[in-house]
Amino acid sequence: MDRPNYITPAGYAVLRREYEQLFGNERPKLVETISWAAGNGDRSENGDYIYGRKRLREIDRRLGWLSRRMKAAKVVDPASAPDRSRIFFGATATIADEDDQERTLTLVGDDEADAGKGMIGWNSPMARALRGAAIGDVRRVALPAGEREYEVVALSYPPSRAAG
C-alpha cells in the first residue's frame, strides 16, 4: 500500500471486534463441528464437513484481510484536529450543489465508509475534492454522472477531549 490507511478510533474498534468475534468465537466452534463431522466417516457426502470446510476458508480469508487492514491502519482521532477551519480527515461538512440541494458528509477511513449514512471514504473522489476546503469554498467534483460543483456551507469536527 502506497498511501496510509487512515481510520477513526471507532472504525478501528469495529474491525477489531469483528476479528475477535471470528477468531475467538465462530472459528473454534466451526473447527469443532468439522472435527466431529470428519469422524463420521465418508466425507464426500457429509454436508457438515463440506459446508464447514468452505465456511472455514471464508473465515480465514476474512481474518487475513482484517489483520492486514488493522496492521496498515493509522488511527487518527478527528477530535484532535489542529486546524478546524478546513476539511480534513474526520470533518463533517455540509455542502450545497448548483440546485441548492444540501448534503452532510463525514470524511472517514475507506474501511468505515457508508455512503447511505453520509460517511464517505477518505480516498473517494468527493473526499479528495473537499480536502482542505473552508466554508464558502466551491469545489468541482468529477462524479460518474458528470462534473458538479459544490459549495461548503458548514464544517464541524467532534468536540476536543481537552475541552471536555
Automatic annotation (TrEMBL):
Gene3D superfamilies: Transcription elongation factor, GreA/GreB, C-terminal domain (3.10.50.30), Transcription elongation factor, GreA/GreB, N-terminal domain (1.10.287.180)
Keywords, ordered alphabetically: DNA-binding, Elongation factor, Protein biosynthesis, Transcription, Transcription regulation
Annotated Pfam families: GreA_GreB, GreA_GreB_N
Sequence ranges assigned to domain Transcription elongation factor GreA/GreB C-terminal in this UniProt record: 85-157
Keyword Glycosyltransferase: no
KW Protein biosynthesis (keyword) present: yes
GO MF: translation elongation factor activity
Domain Transcription elongation factor GreA/GreB N-terminal: 5-75
Family named by the database record: Belongs to the GreA/GreB family. GreB subfamily.
NCBIfam families (UniProt xref): greB, PRK01885.1
Function noted in UniProt: Necessary for efficient RNA polymerase transcription elongation past template-encoded arresting sites. The arresting sites in DNA have the property of trapping a certain fraction of elongating RNA polymerases that pass through, resulting in locked ternary complexes. Cleavage of the nascent transcript by cleavage factors such as GreA or GreB allows the resumption of elongation from the new 3'terminus. GreB releases sequences of up to 9 nucleotides in length.
Protein name: Transcription elongation factor GreB
Organism of origin: Sphingomonas hominis
The encoding gene: greB
